[in-house]
Write a structure and sequence with these properties.
This protein has helices at residues 13-25, 27-30, 42-59, 114-125, 138-142, 175-178, 181-194, 196-224, and strands at 3-6, 69-74, 82-91, 94-105, 128-133, 147-152, 155-159. It is α+β, with helices and mostly antiparallel strands. Helix 1 (13-25) runs antiparallel to helix 3, helix 3 runs antiparallel to helix 7 and helix 7 (181-194) packs across helix 8 (196-224).
Length: 225
């Protein structure tokens, strides 16, 4: 299965478009809040999360102090079709360390080793890898040598070693995205469509959903450690 590493120059517009389309398609899987499509706020995250990922993609090879790398997996029969991606942040002060931000594989290509191949490629470049994932994905990463070390918000923290790196990664500040005129306009349109009460309930439902996931992750980690 062919993979391409983007680390010194940003990917082409075609590759960027395919990656961002996967972000939209698998928003619930990629969002830390696991926003369900049934929640009216889903449309807000459907715009904001791709914006965040796009900011990372634009930084590839452009900001040595806050590096970003991308691995894209392609279909065996169609080398122009991106079927998976792995986005991660190397730690500038620790050359062996990186942190995974997002990974997705198309539903049609899952259980065929694409995710494993991309992760192994990243680990070969940076042996000290950290990521967060939902409880249900822990077994997949354990097969790759990761171990559970903590919980964070709704996620389980996993690392190829027993502790996190002490270095810092260049994480994108997402606050400006959520406060942007575009995000506010999307929210305003939803309020006009559903009404203030429905949107307020949507926020409460999403918060309850996130709290439940956080409790689940914390409980799981306590049992494991």
């Amino acid at each position: 299965m062919p993979t391409v590493l983007y680390h010194d120059t940003p990917p082409s517009k075609q590759v960027t478009h395919q990656v961002l389309q996967m972000v939209v398609t698998y928003l619930t899987d990629l969002s830390m809040l696991a926003v369900p499509p049934s929640n009216p706020l889903y449309n807000v995250y459907r715009w904001t999360l791709p914006c965040e990922v796009d900011l990372y993609l634009q930084r590839i090879g452009q900001m040595p102090a806050a590096p970003v790398e991308l691995i894209v997996a392609y279909d065996d029969m169609n080398p122009t079709e991106a079927v998976g991606f792995l986005l991660y942040l190397p730690v500038p002060t620790h050359p062996d360390a990186c942190g995974v931000t997002y990974m997705a594989v198309k539903q049609s290509h899952r259980r065929r080793g694409f995710g494993t191949a991309m992760m192994r490629q990243a680990i070969a470049r940076y042996p000290h890898v950290e990521l967060t994932c939902p409880v249900k994905k822990v077994p997949f990463y354990e097969q790759l040598g990761f171990q559970v070390i903590d919980s964070e918000n709704t996620q389980v923290v996993m690392n190829t070693r027993s502790a996190s790196t002490t270095g810092l990664m260049g994480i994108v500040d997402v606050a400006p995205i959520y406060q942007s005129p575009q995000a506010k306009e999307i929210h305003a349109q939803l309020v006009n469509r559903w009404g203030i009460k429905v949107m307020a309930n949507a926020e409460k439902q999403l918060q309850r959903h996130a709290d439940q996931l956080a409790r689940q992750a914390a409980s799981y980690v306590r049992e494991r450690l």
